[in-house]
Amino acid sequence: MPTPLIEGELMMRLLRILFIPIFVLIIWFSTVSNAVAVNTTLIPCKDSPVFQQRQNSAPDNYYYTRPFEVYSSELLCGPDGLPHLPLDRLDRAVDVAIPFGIFFYVAGFIGWSGRAYLRASNKAKNPEALEIFISIPLAIQSVSQGLLWPVFALKEFFSGELVADDETLSVSPR
Amino acid sequence: MQYLFKYLTMAPVLGILIFVAVWILFIQLNYFFPGLQYGTYFHSVP
Fold it and tell me: Cys staple from A149: which of A87, A112, A129, A172, with CB 3.0 to 4.6 Å?
């Protein structure tokens, strides 16, 4: 036979079941979310007088004329008349995502190529010599592995090969 | 000839060679795609 609930315990259960959801709903509907305002400091470069001044005073040659035309039609300029990256809107997110993606891939490519080379040279019978005199066939092999580094990194991550076990790391005496 | 090859594959020498190659590559990229900057990736150069 179940023991009868004490009054305090009953109240606590009621609180959990009833009042907490009610409080959550009250807080949910009573708070006003912040209005997201688009930054209007940045204007299209072709509308910026300072940018137009810069464009007109730039030298008329291959390295200035066409770039300035692209900036004028595509980029947003600040009060200084220079292009700036707007970080407050999603429709321009590719402007950040693409350079970041390129950087991330190149950094990973460099790192993974070196790692592949070192791992391969450590398996050879003369690892030190392979670090002083770069073996070109091994380097080409490592670099081509580095091109596909995201695939290899994911594969090694899931197989547990990406990081070394704690026992294999040397620790200085404490 | 093999000594020259061995010298060229020394890590510092090869590093400098690759650095110069990448430098030249970037100069050429800037020549073929002038104005390739943030925000102009998906737009054709007028």
Answer: A112
